[in-house]
Structure formats: structure tokens, C-alpha cells
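Table S2 (continued). Query chain:
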Amino acid sequence: MRQPIRAGEMMICEIDPDTLLDEVTKLKYSEWRLMQICATKTGEDSYEVLYTFGHGYRLRSIRLKISGEAKLSSITSIYPIAYLYENEMHDLFGIEIDMINIDFKGGLFRTGVKAPFK
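Corresponding output:
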């Protein structure tokens, strides 16, 4: 994990995608709740994914950067509700998510264009 950024009561830690499951598991067992997952296109074929967790009035985010052809590990085995966010990232950005518990296979959103933000 790289040096965290502090913004008031929010901490943002940038991690490598390979360590995602380990970092999320640590947060789960420290009683942090998943609040949101957000993807943003940052380049021609690159994305930033931000996972935000809350504990009381504190916020902590995990940020990672991936290329368009990379597969991201699902966190649904740790936080089951993450399936909604992960299907959204797949449908809207074309980000491949590996091992989603409930996988809509591109059918969660009805869009005129496949992966409109890819």
C-alpha cells in the first residue's frame, strides 16, 4: 500500500489491484461497511476504481488503477451487496470482474451502446 492521502476525516489509500481482496478483507474484519464503488475512465484504455468504506463518521477509500483489458477480482465474497456496483462497472465501462456472486452478464443496465463509457 502506498502512503495514504488524508482529506479531513477521509483517508484514501492507493493499492495494486493484486492486493484488493486482502485490503477489503482487513476492512471487513475491522467492521468497516461498504458504501460505494465508483469507476472513472482516466485515459484511452485505463480506469480508476474507488471503493469507499465507512466506520462511524469516518470514511476510508481504496483507489486502484487498471487497464481496460485487466480483470478485477470481485469483492462479493466479502461484501455480497457489491454485486450491484460490480455489474454497473461491467455494463457501463466494460471492466471485467472475475467471480461476481450475482452476474447479470451485461444485462443490469439497458443502454443503446454496449459499455458507453469504455
